[in-house]
Write a structure and sequence with these properties.
By secondary structure, the chain is an alpha+beta fold. The chain has eight helices and 18 strands. It is globular, with a radius of gyration of 22 Å.
């Protein structure tokens, strides 16, 4: 018999404004400890040196993580022109240099090729799997890999600042699976000057904003107190990208038992994924079948 995990059975989201110098997993572990939570996860890894919004899901909210991960995200990042690194960021070794420094108009003109549906090759130091092993592990061993290009939707990529001749600050809004480091690398190649990411900040992810997120210092200061609980956001926020249908009182038990049940819907197409609520609380996510919802995941009430 499996041992029951210790901790409080709480559900919701805690939005952390992640600092540089710590992994996303370490942030989740700290939040889980601070809230004495039984279960926790996050929606979208940030590199250790990246900062910004890291949405930590607790309890039943972990079931909504895929919907936040699939949502649009926005990044503010500064790239260093004139240098390519083996990690495509400032943590790596310089593997190429150039004296060329394009002007602002040349850079703006080049950005267009990275907007819309693009194909992007992940960095050598990335979490994609190669022969069952993470690429970054092979890269650390000195193995150079031919990584397959992946599709990415880039909604917007704009130049927002030019601090000096060597640096350019950009803002990008994109879909799931984008590597900002790859954008910097490929832009440097397109401009003929080489480039890598010097600093990176995720400013929003789906419904969550970095502005207003708690800092790790606040998490430490309020750990194991009701003060930190007050920052929890309801799990329903993680379903923001899905249409909502309302279920009748008699449908609640059926849905939670995994059975189709009657729902009240407006502006939901047959076969569309939606979430069912009762008194504003999430009951299930499933497929709408014209007056009924066929649940694919259900939410169990927590304290």
């Amino acid at each position: 018999m499996a041992r029951k995990r210790k901790g409080r059975d709480i559900s919701g989201w805690l939005v952390v404004d992640k600092p540089a110098g710590i992994t996303s997993t370490a942030v989740v572990n700290k939040v889980r400890w601070a809230l004495d939570a039984r279960k926790a996860g996050h929606a979208g890894t940030l590199d250790p040196e990246a900062t910004g919004v890291l949405a930590v899901a607790l309890g039943e909210a972990t079931k909504t993580v895929p919907f936040v991960t699939d949502a649009m995200k926005a990044y503010m990042f500064t790239i260093r022109l004139g240098q390519a690194t083996n990690t495509d960021d400032a943590e790596g070794e310089v593997i190429g240099e150039s004296d060329l420094r394009p002007d602002d108009e040349t850079i703006k003109s080049a950005l267009g090729q990275f907007v819309g549906d693009i194909m992007q090759v992940p960095p050598q130091f990335s979490a994609v799997k190669v022969d069952g092993q993470r690429a970054y592990k092979k890269a650390r061993e000195g193995t150079e890999m031919e990584l397959a290009a992946r599709p990415l939707w880039v909604e917007e990529l704009v130049l927002v600042d030019r601090p000096d001749v060597d640096h350019v600050t950009l803002e990008m809004t994109c879909g799931k699976g984008g590597y900002v480091r790859a954008i910097a690398r490929d832009l440097g190649d397109a401009l003929g000057c080489k480039a890598h990411v010097k600093s990176l900040r995720r400013i929003w992810s789906g419904p969550f904003q970095a502005e207003g997120g708690v800092t790790l210092e606040q998490v430490d200061a309020m750990a194991r107190t009701p003060d930190l609980d007050a920052f929890l956001k309801p799990l329903e926020i993680g379903l923001d990208s899905l249409p909502e249908v309302r279920c009748l009182a008699e449908s609640v038990a059926r849905l939670r038992n995994g059975n189709p049940a009657s729902v009240i819907a407006t502006d939901v197409e047959f076969g569309e994924e939606a979430w069912a609520s009762y008194d504003g609380k999430a009951i299930a996510v499933g497929t709408y079948r014209g007056g009924e919802l066929q649940p694919s995941r259900v939410f169990i009430p927590t304290a």
